[in-house]
Write a structure and sequence with these properties.
alpha/beta, 2 domains, five-stranded parallel beta sheet, two-stranded antiparallel ribbon
């Protein structure tokens, strides 16, 4: 009689042990909190509903008076339109950029343009964090002390994001100025994209100066009118629907309250995400084989594809932006942002690496060339450009400062904003 009871007790103890072990492991190793699970499901849901060009992070909700908040961001689980669209100046841009641009044009038309010290922050994903939440308030407070602000309110407007690089930055600024916008200052915050994305373009047969291959080639695939592309397009959509249904089930399931079963469910969704990525790559390859090469890949010109060549173009882009700002009476500063894989920076933490791209990928390899960017920044400084080397901003920081290869955590964005703001306030 006792033996069956012992067996039953042992069987009942197994799921309890698995659950407790999972929860203890999450507590010790920084596992899936409810907030992280919600954010992850939002991210996967955006991918499931996006066109082949991909999806950006879900719109950030916020109060109506927050200039960086997306008023279309709704409750978790609400279907959102695609973020990224083609643009004749920057190759592609995001819904947030379109909304902020229209807001600036409306403000100009209303005659409010001279009321504040307007600072445009242009660059990659870190630029959106300093020009928007969570770093904007910190940066604005620091810049309020500079003489150029002259007691005016400091307004920050961010343009850019994931996969932007030169010459997109300079072309975007030229378009803003051609539309009649008149910022008081422009802060260029970049670095990692110029190295990683040019290398990625070269690996996929695109011209180094073209927009980033992963988004550009898939966005332009929508322009193709070729029956042979229907099969990979339909497979891509099939994989999207599978991912979307998985997210919907996860949101509705009561089993997500269990740490162990939640981890299993997220692992299954991650596999569907990888299937979607493979389908996207197959679509990209199919388009590359059949599309007009001049549209997808750019001109045939040997402009150099080494990291040193990329840094040279990065320097030239900065020079052009400074020249534009000088011509229009705006201050200009170039900030070299920190990157997770920078060989001379603080060694990455395990929890930071868990959010990063694969170790052998172009983003990780680009860290080896970061000393070239620092040398390029010194060249610009010698020419009279206001520069801030923030590549080592997290040297003495505790805890995770990165939430990806170059995107910062909230704490990282605030610390970066503080250091950049202090440096610029001292010279402006």
């Amino acid at each position: 009689m006792k033996a069956p009871l012992v067996v039953l007790a042992a069987l009942a103890a197994v799921p309890l042990a698995l659950e407790l072990g999972t929860r203890v492991g999450a507590a010790v190793g920084g596992g899936w909190s409810d907030e992280r699970v919600a954010a992850r499901l939002d991210e996967l849901e955006a991918l499931a509903g996006a066109p082949p060009g991909g999806a950006d992070p879900a719109p950030r909700p916020g109060p109506p008076d927050d200039p960086q908040a997306d008023p279309r961001a709704g409750a978790p689980g609400e279907r959102r339109p695609a973020e990224t669209a083609l643009n004749p100046w920057a190759g592609f841009y995001r819904r947030g950029d379109r909304r902020r641009l229209q807001g600036e044009l409306d403000r100009l038309a209303s005659g409010q343009a001279d009321a504040a010290f307007d600072v445009y922050v242009i660059g990659g994903c870190a630029a959106t964090q300093l020009g928007g939440a969570p770093g904007a308030a910190v940066l604005a407070d620091e810049l309020a002390a500079c003489g150029a602000a002259a007691g005016r309110e400091v307004r920050l407007v961010a343009f850019g994001g994931v996969d932007w690089k030169q010459p997109q930055h300079v072309l975007w600024l030229e378009w803003l100025l051609s539309l009649g916008l008149q910022p008081d200052a422009v802060v260029l915050l970049d670095g990692p994209g110029e190295l990683a994305l040019e290398a990625l373009n070269a690996a996929r047969g695109l011209h180094p100066t073209y927009p980033a291959a992963p988004r550009w080639s898939k966005l332009t695939a929508r322009l193709a009118n070729d029956p042979e592309l229907l099969d990979p397009v339909l497979e891509f959509r099939r994989r999207q629907r599978l991912l979307g249904r998985g997210v919907e089930r996860a949101r509705a399931s009561r089993w997500m309250a269990s740490a162990f079963l939640r981890n299993r469910a997220l692992a299954g969704l991650a596999e569907r995400e990888r299937d979607l990525e493979r389908a996207g790559s197959a679509l990209e390859a199919a388009f590359a084989e059949r599309a007009d090469a001049s549209l997808l890949r750019g001109p045939r010109a040997d402009v150099g594809g080494t990291p040193a060549d990329a840094v040279g173009r990065w320097i030239d882009g900065s020079r052009q932006m400074r020249a534009l700002c000088d011509a229009f009476g705006a201050r200009f500063a170039h900030v070299l942002q920190p990157a997770l894989h920078d060989v001379d920076a603080r060694p990455p933490l395990d929890e930071e690496l868990a959010e990063a791209s694969p170790a052998g990928g172009p983003r990780a390899r680009s860290g080896r060339a970061y000393p070239l960017l620092r040398a390029g920044l010194r060249v610009l400084a010698a020419e009279g450009t206001t520069v801030v080397d923030a590549s080592d901003a997290f040297r003495d920081a505790e805890g995770a400062m990165f939430a990806g290869d170059c995107r910062c955590t909230e704490a990282g964005a605030r610390e970066l904003a503080r250091q950049v703001g202090e440096a610029l306030a001292a010279v402006w």
